[in-house]
Amino acid sequence: MQLYLPIAELPVNIFVIFLMGGAVGFLSGLFGIGGGFLLTPLLIFSGIPPAVSVATVTTQVVASSASAVVSYWRRKAIDHKLAAILLVGGVLGSFVGVVLFDVLQTLGQLDLVISLSYVTFLGTIGGLMLFESIRAIRRRRSGVAPKARKPGQHNWIHGLPLKVRFRRSKLYVSVIPVVGLGAIIGFLGTVLGIGGGFMMVPALIYLLRVPTSIVIGTSLFQILFTMAAATVFHSMGTKTVDIVLALTLMIGGVIGAQFGARMGQNLRGDQLRLLLAVLVLGVGLRFAVDLLLVPEDLYSIAVSNRVGS
């Protein structure tokens, strides 16, 4: 059954898109991630223009984060003050990202920048995750207990000025790294179509020393509103959000996430990280192969109308 996408300006098989959303939703529930960094490449590989893929996935991230935020809100597991400062940085980063996105699209370099960014980004993150997960598995098999971090341990970030007290997280840190972290996540989310939770959570835990019980809810709260801002910026600025595509992906994602969450309970943390690392590296490798292959059509006039207008 064919479904026409008005913004992407091409017909797609509705069942393929639905299953794609379901598969990413399944992986999201399995690994506890937003899935944007997986869904965007899958849409690009299926023939959806990169600009539409990136912009539309921001709506998917908003939908997948909303229900989870409500749950954490009810459990009072969100540091609203910390999330608000992260959000300030996130909105600023999203705005800068949309401006760069529009400039690259006008110059006709957006596809290349997205591909190069994904190869670098996924290759680095996937490699680090693979190394850490293999080391954790070896340590577990050898019977060596991991070294626990002592509470109250500080790093160089805690010596920065402009400190603010976050009572729910029991922190007293500078707002500089908090705003900076939010800006980075907002920027990447707008340009690459990723929620950034898989970067935000480790950064809050290891850099800012936010308690684990507060981290996930606070991260989701910030990502929800940052990606909502990115969706608005894309809709008003680049006009590349395809609502038909977004709704189809959302329905499949919600269903798939339920099955993934159930299966994830049967796997250990190190096994999940190893599987996710292999998946991330696989997507990055696919982008690298596409960059090296000679395209079938060496010439394109796709941006001529936009530049001339």
From TrEMBL:
Topology within the bilayer: Multi-pass membrane protein
Family: Belongs to the 4-toluene sulfonate uptake permease (TSUP) (TC 2.A.102) family.
Domain of life: Bacteria
Main location: membrane
Localization terms from the record: Cell membrane; Membrane
Residue stretches spanning the membrane: 12-39, 51-70, 82-101, 113-131, 171-194, 214-233, 240-260, 272-294
InterPro entries: TM_pro_TauE-like, TSUP/Inactive_protease-like
A Pfam entry, by short name: TauE
Assigned keywords, A-Z: Cell membrane, Membrane, Transmembrane, Transmembrane helix
Keyword Secreted included in the entry's annotation: no
Protein name: Probable membrane transporter protein
Species assigned in the record: Roseibium salinum
